[in-house]
Amino acid sequence: MNLMVFGAPGAGKGTQAKFLVEKYGIPQISTGDMLRAAIAEKTDMGMEAKQYMDKGGLVPDSTIIGIIKDRLKKEDCEKGFILDGFPRTLKQAEALEELMNQSGKKLDKVLSFDVPDELIIQRIAGRRVCPKCGASYHTEFNCSQVENICDCCNDALIIRKDDNADTVKNRLENYHNQTAPLIDFYKKMGVFTQIDGSQKLMVRKSLIWLQKRCLVRYKKSL
Ligand code: AMP
Fold first, then answer.
1. Contact, 34 vs 85, CB < 8 A?
2. Measured from the CA of 31, which atom of ligand 1 is nearest?
3. Is residue 175 within 8 Å of residue 85, measured between CB atoms?
4. Residue nearest to ligand 1 atom 8, measured at CA
5. How distant, in Å, are the alpha carbons of 51, 92, 217 from that of 46?
6. Whether residue 171 lies in the annotated active site
7. How far is the CA of 166 from the centre of ligand 1 (A)?
8. Cα angle 194-99-177, degrees, rounded to a multiple of 5
9. What are the pocket residues of ligand 1 if the criterion is a CB atom closer than 6 Å to any ligand atom?
10. Which of 49, 120, 137, 155 is the most exposed place for a label (fewest CB within 10 A)?
11. What is the spatial distance between Cα 186 and Cα 110, in angstroms, rounded to a whole number?
12. How far is the CA of 216 from the centre of ligand 1 (A)?
């Protein structure tokens, strides 16, 4: 099964993708995570991408399409995958279609999480993430058990560098101008499903479920 989670930054795509990874046993392919890993490794590509990411801009299509092309060729994608944060422009969506056609695959569903901008700003302002396992918390809606410490791996939580008020404004603008037009693209393909991502209960339930699974895995590894 080939899925895509779609929505504005902070809409909960990553959280829902992790939920789907557990449910279907297929990998989450997050371009944001891949870029952050490249930055941590200080690769040339990572250093170039950082300049765009720090300002809340989009990394050039050619770079992103290259990353996805290599990633989708890997063996773990054979049974399916969950795209998270890709595509973000029409050019990327067209490149994905070409890649899928070339490999005889098709996109089964685009799950779009609809959240009003005001709620996104609130969510991003309180977001804390674990640099090790990627678990996401919120200072108000989903606190870690010990303040600023990941429940799963005990690492100190961090604020993402691009989770600040100015950058979020740019990221939302980019979403509305460049990414939201893809809604029509996927509606025409007949794979688009809209979900109300502002429901606290759905988000909360998914997070609790994920964190329990994460904790079980952590305890097993001890
Ligand atoms: P995310 O973790 O998905 O919020 O992505 C963080 C940042 O990485 C974005 O604000 C962009 O700067 C960059 N990025 C991630 N995915 C893409 C993409 N598909 N196209 C362009 N830039 C991207």
1. no
2. 16
3. no
4. 32
5. 9, 19, 30
6. yes
7. 16
8. 45
9. 9, 31-32, 35, 52-53, 56-59, 64, 85-88, 92, 162, 171
10. 155
11. 7
12. 30
For the chain, the structural domain boundaries read 2-115+179-221
138/129 Cα distance (integer angstroms): 9
What is the bridge-based pairing of β-strands 127-129 and 136-138? antiparallel
Q: Is 217 a catalytic residue?
A: no
- Residue 155 Cα distances to 141, 160, 178, 209, angstroms: 20, 15, 35, 20
What is the CATH topology of the domain spanning 2-115+179-221?
Rossmann fold (3.40.50)
Residue with tokens 């290599």: 70
For ligand 1, what atom is nearest to the CA of residue 167? 10
> What region does 56 belong to: left with phi over 0, alpha with psi -120 to 50, or beta?
left
pTM: 0.87
Task: Give the pair of three-digit tokens for residue 210.
Answer: 């994920």
Query: What does the pLDDT look like over 98-116, one tens digit per residue?
Result: 999 999 999 999 999 999 9
